[in-house]
Amino acid sequence: MESNLEIVDLGLLIKDKGILIFSDFHIGYEEALNKKGVLVPRFQFKGIIKRLTKIFLRLKKDKVKLKIIIINGDIKHEFGAISDQEWRETLKLLDFLAKHCKEIVLVKGNHDTILGPIAKKKKVSVVDYYFAEDVLITHGNKIPEKEIMKKAKIIIIGHEHPAVSLREDVRTEKFKCFLKGKWKNKKLIVMPSFCLATEGTDILRDRILSPFLKQKLNEFKVLIVADKIYDFGKVKNLL
Amino acid sequence: MIEVKEKPNTEKEIINVMNPLVKKWFFSRFKEFSLPQLYGIMEVHSRSNVLISAPTGATKTLTAFLSILNEFVDSAEKGILEDKIYCVYISPLKALNYDIEVNLNEPLKQIEEIAGKKFGIKVAVRTGDTTQSERSNMLKKPPHILITTPESLAILLSTIKFRELLRNIDWCIVDEIHALADNKRGVHLSLSMERLQRISQHICRVGLSATISPLEDVAKFLVGFENEKPRDCKIVNVQFIKKMDLKVLSPVPDLISTTHEDMQNAMYNLIDKLIQDHKTTLIFTNTRAATERVVDHLKESFPKNYSENIGAHHGSLSKTHRHDVENKLREGKLKVVVSSTSLELGIDIGYIDLVILLGSPKSVARALQRCGRSGHKLHDISKGRIIVLNRDDLVECAVLLKSAIEEKIDKIHIPKNCLDVLAQQIYGIAIAEKIHINELFSLIKNSYCFNDLKRADFREVIDYLCGRYTSLEDRHIYAKIWHDEETGMIGRRGKLARVTYMTNIGTIPDETFIVVKVGEQTIGKIDEAFLEKMKKGDVFVLGGSIYEFLYSKGMVAYVSSSVNRPPTIPSWVSESLPLSFDLALEIGRFRGYMEEKFLKKQNKEEIMKFINEYLYVDNNAANAIFSYFQEQYFYAEIPSIKKLLIESYSDDKIKYCVFHSLYGRRVNDVLSRAIAFAISRVQHRDVEIGISDNGFYIASEKGINSVKALKILKSDKLELVLNMAIDKTEVLKRRFRHCATRALMILRNYGGRKMGVGRQQVSSMILMSAVKRISTNFSILKEARREVLEDLMDIENAKLVLKQIEDKKIKIKQITTNIPSPFALNLVMQGHLDVMRMEDKMEFLRRMHQMTLAKIGLKHKME
Asked: Between residues 696 and 755 of chain B, which touch chain A (CB distance below 8 Å)?
């Protein structure tokens, strides 16, 4: 099954199923900052659409026929009151994605407590987790029940927003990355966030959030997402 | 017209205008008028703007207040003293306000005693600490003299009820103006004064300053402009009326071969001896951390001499602690007090008979201000001792002393056209009233700091405040003001405007302390500015122990405690104070003279004689200076004000290119970055730069042609180059945060919550990248770059240097050495490092990728 997976920029493609997975858009991140007193203008949405457009163009060139787009949690940022603007952008994003597939599946994330108008959208379904054969797609903020886990051979999560910082002397640069490793004999893939405001959690230094990753990460493989995918080998090489 | 008052008034002239009671009081306390009083009292009396520059203890404050008290008593006797504010007194320090109140209320009481009746003259302090009930009292019964800070004044000007009390004020006194003019607090105040003048048109401005230069510019800063001409102002210059006894001391005769430890011991022995030989000593260090260290060290090394009688005084200590130390000082209970900068200002601290400066104070004005704290009374002699720890410090302080004795004071830099401060003040104005855009523009241009503000820059700030950088539908979130294009009117927006303004006002960025950790264990805190200077592998002192710096992450610095090397970052040799440009040039001039002597083959005796005469130093010091220059002359060459020496040498793989550009760190910051930028543009690789006051170096693994790079640089293109060169630096990111908070793009206090500095920094990074997407010339980003180039660095003087190179007034000399020359040694060791990021993020990633692959490949082979 693993050879069937392909990283396409910040997305993950299950080739034979025509499934494309994204994670953690965090639409409305700016607004959350506004409420804290940081007057950041909205800039994410434009950037997200631009980056998605590039991805779809490439898939088209590769003659990939998309059936399902899965958003693996946290499409929007805010827990509490959500403004019209935030809903508008979320719906606009769903409309945009809908043009490129037949069906959209929203896997619930910890930020997706209120689904509001999304639930009424055509072509969109909301689930707690999703199986593509033995590939389990779940947000990653908690571990699903044993029964469910039993069926999975490969687990794909988001939530963590993994990134690594590369340093040389005093220079440090942070990059979004995929992590590939194991969770109890099963293969585990951690996807980077599609949130463009920040690169994410520096897995070499920051506090790790997901219960899937409360383990030694030294043997995990780091795949940095930039103009292409850069394989940096194992985490321990970067420490 | 700005003019220096040449002649003092006569005692008779002053007595003639004095109320008999005030006269009686004055001469019951003082024998005669002091010089500042003879010059100043009549000016204040006749309501002419005046700037009085005199050393501490020269009775400046009483000079300003005497005429005013005189009028109050006079009016009170005649029964015409109104219940209104006559005088606003502004001081940069809250503690000082308290001081002044005591100094004002005391004389008032004494005058009342003489008169045998009360006059009801009221003095009130209004700062951020003033309670709600005190505030409402002030509204009901306004004080005759209002004592406040620059920040509180701006708030009062936007408060509906209080604003009414600020109409028709007679006097506005700005104390300690030297502590305001060179920073954004002063810029902020300059606009507040214009706002005050708008409602009190005939106000008389009185400025009080310690030793400062150039007085004409400070006077213009004080009075501002009207109808595009500077308002009239008299300058009273009595800066040098106090006698000074200043000396440079070295703890050991040989500054070069003494170990770090021996040097420390010798230094503390010397300090102890000096303290014991005097009654009360004030020690200035250049940083807060060093202040603590000196106190600890003295207590530890001399437990018999120091226990309860030693105190520390600096800005991070609590208010109660500081007041406690000040009180003990006044009561004579302290033998010694150690301070960073907080005691530079004129708080009355009682009798001090010796000031010790640890390390160079880096500017003549600062040296005079600090040493002036001893012998507080006008006729006392100020006694100052500067302790130097290396030969560069020795030469620097010796030349500094010469300038001080010969009354050559270095010029300050007054920041101009600060768009962040402008945004904050426009918001304040809009909260107070509706105003036409043209009227607003001319109000702003009346400030000295905005006199040449471009209309386009002003418009950009207005557009920013109107939220015009966001889409129309979002604008309600971002707009602070409205601007009607048709009528030209401007006003505030939003119900929370006033609260937002009041709780976020000010120009001083939140202090950021970096937590220092060994593993997960916290061992202490260091200044953010200190961190900015550290590179991996640097060794520094904290809390008496030595640590090696590994890396930093956010607000945490990770260090290792297993290190056995001496500190590479000297702990108190001017961590943060840059050498002033004027003083740097004086040292360059001295170097030139010294070279001449050696070239003329003069013998040691002749040269020693010259040093002794030129520098006012003792034989030991002259000897050390002589051998330092002799070594440099024989080993390499002596650089000077007319000759820029560029020295190349290699160290294993790394090639160093040392520029002996003695222009101070602010200029060297600019030159080194520009050159590094030019080099790396061609070589496409990060190069390392190290910057100090005496020069800078550029290091790289490949050979580099720095001289060529220097020659490519043209003074008129410097700004363009630097804007690119600083684009990705840490310092720009941090300064952007400061600017964004000043411009109220990041609200530190919002919705009843206070945002931590770490949070501010993270937010400001997101904000910066968002703003860059809108325009690389977004007003607040532009201001951050201006602040870095003009205030933090010194691009103006750097241009001057380049121009002189272009005009061949400074010649360039290249040499190659095997090991760094004596002059280069300290520079290379102390240079504060930065890396020019020439590779873009992608190139960096690709190279790091190649390196990692190679590393992994190697590992596989080994296995």
From this structure: 744-751, 753, 755
